[in-house]
């Protein structure tokens, strides 16, 4: 089993380069199915989800070539191969194979997705969208069967603002007959990124990034080249680490506009932040960190994915803070581990009450999901002594070259053990 070790107390100084956005990449890769000629995607993050999705494209008959951070997908030869089990269960984003395969082949069989366990994560809004476009959708033995004679544009109102449902419906509607309107659509930057790829492929999409998206279906989509936007959650995680233990850290390849809610909360805490065109500089000269209350909301509100690492930072604020997660009300598994390190945190309903003024101590802790892992890295950097983090496979799903990036700015972080048994363990879940 692989483990990460962090010796806390080292001050960070220098520049951290942010990778391409995971939550864009995991939608852009399945989106290539819709094209009739090769698609090249640049600036892919070096994370395990990218490898799994590329393997899934090969399983359905496509050809992929990953060179550095560039993936070329040739969809020639793809067919609607059923994917009820196997790799598809390893990550949540495999649900994008539903929209993309339905759009291209008018049918798909996809095992219900895995991914981080953040409490219930239904996909009823995705299914509502597919049905509105004319698909028959059934759930048989843990797999979703989708079939349509033809897909016809429709007006779809999402009852819940959902990133996944918005993207999945865009994918299916790109080649439907007529116009599809998604109302109460999610507005995350990753949705704009997917719409940009589809538009470059020849799709007609208006309003991505607002809460009403209109898709005019077209007969065919062609290959193109696309560069992924920077990962705002990875950037935000490093900003929080810099706020926790940084002297002066520049986070490069960032769109500061995507991080406004985090930037304002960090400033409220007393952290100095300078925003530049495509980077942010965090200077942490002042010692007192003020407590703040945070409520996660859909974009542009405070991201649920940053709630966990931010909680670690608040343990050392000079007073109590409340963190409320309105998106995933039970995304608090990291708090059990933070308590082992000496934090005083009480979870009540959808909120964590963090007492503040803790002096964290290194301990043996477990990353139960991706961002819980990031929270433990923040805590490990802050703690006295060595923190040993297991569950590293979760962290590898979202943070490319984590140790290398952090070592470059002065952290003492290393990995021990072999990854083979983790992979075997993952297959079983
Ligand atoms: N929801 C429903 N029905 C649906 C879909 C969603 O009730 O059909 C609910 C969810 O249970 C949740 C809320 O709506 O309470 C929002 O879920 P959303 O669909 O927006 O989440 P997602 O698309 O499954 C993406 C990211 C998550 C991120 C959320 C929220 C990907 C692959 N995942 O998930 O990222 O937390 O949006 O921003 O894009 C992560 O990166 O660590 C991560 C979990």
TrEMBL record:
It catalyses: phosphoenolpyruvate + UDP-N-acetyl-alpha-D-glucosamine = UDP-N-acetyl-3-O-(1-carboxyvinyl)-alpha-D-glucosamine + phosphate. Phosphoenolpyruvate binds at residues 22-23. Keywords: Cell cycle, Cell division, Cell shape, Cell wall biogenesis/degradation, Cytoplasm, Peptidoglycan synthesis, Pyruvate, Transferase. The modification 2-(S-cysteinyl)pyruvic acid O-phosphothioketal is found at residue 116. Residues 7-406 form the Enolpyruvate transferase domain. GO terms for molecular function: UDP-N-acetylglucosamine 1-carboxyvinyltransferase activity. Its main location: cytoplasm. GO terms for cellular component: cytoplasm. It is an enzyme of class 2 (transferase). Cell wall formation. Adds enolpyruvyl to UDP-N-acetylglucosamine. Belongs to the EPSP synthase family. MurA subfamily. This is UDP-N-acetylglucosamine 1-carboxyvinyltransferase. It comes from Bacillus selenitireducens (strain ATCC 700615 / DSM 15326 / MLS10). The lineage of its organism: Bacteria, Bacillati, Bacillota, Bacilli, Bacillales. The gene is murA.
